[in-house]
Amino acid sequence: MINPIAEAEVAALNRRIQLLEEDLTRAEERLKIATEKLEEASKAADESE
């Protein structure tokens, strides 16, 4: 028989994993956007020299 407390802990940990994965996805998207903006700014600075 499965321990109901352990089962609840596993469910909570799985939910935490899901939330962390979603946070990672958002952070990666923000990093991508910031990197693109930095590349654009760098290119503009090079062109203005």
- Low-confidence stretches are none
Q: How does the helix and strand content classify structurally?
A: mainly alpha
Q: Beta fraction of the residues?
A: under 5%
Q: What is the total tally of β strands?
A: 0
Largest sheet: none
Taking the alpha carbons of the first and last residues, their distance comes to: 73 Å
By DSSP (H or I, 4+ residues per run), the number of helices equals: 1
Rg is 21 Å
- In sequence order, what are the helices and strands, one letter per element? H
Mean pLDDT: 97
Helicity range of the residues?
A: over 70%
* Quaternary form: single chain
Shape descriptor reads rod-shaped
Topology of helices and strands:
Layout: H1 4-48
InterPro entries: Tropomyosin
Family: Belongs to the tropomyosin family.
Protein name: Tropomyosin
Task: Describe this protein's structure.
The model has no long low-confidence stretch (mean pLDDT 97). By secondary structure, the protein is mainly alpha-helical. The protein is rod-shaped. It comes from Trichinella nativa. Belongs to the tropomyosin family. Keywords: Coiled coil. This is Tropomyosin.
